[in-house]
Amino acid sequence: MDPDGTLAFASHDHAACRDGALAHAEAVAEAKGLRLTPVRRRALEILLESHQALGAYDVLDRLAEEGFGRQPPVAYRALEFLVEHGFAHRIRRLNAFAACMHPGEAHVPVFLICSACNGLAEAPGAAVAASLRQAAGPLGFRVERMSIEAVGLCPACQGGSE
Amino acid sequence: MDPDGTLAFASHDHAACRDGALAHAEAVAEAKGLRLTPVRRRALEILLESHQALGAYDVLDRLAEEGFGRQPPVAYRALEFLVEHGFAHRIRRLNAFAACMHPGEAHVPVFLICSACNGLAEAPGAAVAASLRQAAGPLGFRVERMSIEAVGLCPACQGGSE
DNA sequence: TCTTGACTAGTTATCTTATAACATATTCCT
DNA sequence: AGGAATATGTTATAAGATAACTAGTCAAGA
């Protein structure tokens, strides 16, 4: 459906995109013996509804409406589980979370955040990660985790105001 | 003194490092007609005291001790000024701020955050920025700003626990 | 000199984001 | 069934950030 996870900014069959990601996540969870419980699963579905990042409290509101707990830890714990197991990412720049578009694959995501429509795409970041490691090497720094995020305009939003 | 801004992890004459950065900032402010007022200057000095990122409230506490206002906007405004004019950077991953090691030069910083000692270095990021733009290009995304941050171990902290 | 406008600094109040700590329930294994 | 581990829920609070208003500063022009 979206093998590069880069279709966020292109028009696509989002219902299929969402269902595919969810099915994939379920398969990965099954394979790894992870418990994709109702709250966790629902949190992931909420993130998958759009190619945007959502704040923890946005997710919490949605969960609460549907009968889950309405206290912050409910959302934070579900999101933490999703992030920890690679089903979602945390977007530091936005204090927000987004569903992962490559669940199960080892990858370093590069987040492209549209400042006009709040759309979010996950570009392949292997090359960026490599050059980051090259920048860190001469200083003797050993990289463990990285956050690579860009803010700008997605294709659809470039027409409007330029 | 530290032409690459990468000495944070190396032993160096920090008093000179700090004074140099401050003098540089003053010169740039003078040249651009910016007002490096007492609060702003003091906030910068506080950031320059160590190669670590400080939270806005840490800076605020220090400012308040010295007779400046003790309400959050006092610190946030001073820090916002410093960031806006390139005297400091915001480290999203830490919800914190750090003095810029290349004031006045156009540059894309890559932040290297040591998870053991909280040290922070600013590596040159031109190559990383270029490959980020290359990753964004195929999606038609126009990059305006970017945050590139890595967490790991600095040279001094790699000996201890490996 | 006076005054006007831009900017700076301070305050109160509030909002948003995140976590600690503890109680209860569920699930898994033996 | 018993017990350990895991998951969910709650209360309370910590930590980070901003809106909106007031008042002081300073420089440029009438």
Automatic annotation (TrEMBL), chains A, B:
CC per GO annotation: cytosol
Essential cofactor(s): Zn(2+)
One of the record's GO molecular function terms: zinc ion binding
Gene3D superfamilies attached to this UniProt entry: 3.30.1490.190, Winged helix-like DNA-binding domain superfamily/Winged helix DNA-binding domain
Keyword Acetylation on entry: no
Binding site for Zn(2+): 114, 117, 154, 157
GO terms of biological process kind: negative regulation of DNA-templated transcription; regulation of secondary metabolite biosynthetic process
UniProt remark on cofactor binding: Binds 1 zinc ion per subunit.
Keywords: DNA-binding, Metal-binding, Repressor, Transcription, Transcription regulation, Zinc
PANTHER family: ZINC UPTAKE REGULATION PROTEIN
Family: Belongs to the Fur family.
Name the record gives this protein: Fur family zinc uptake transcriptional regulator
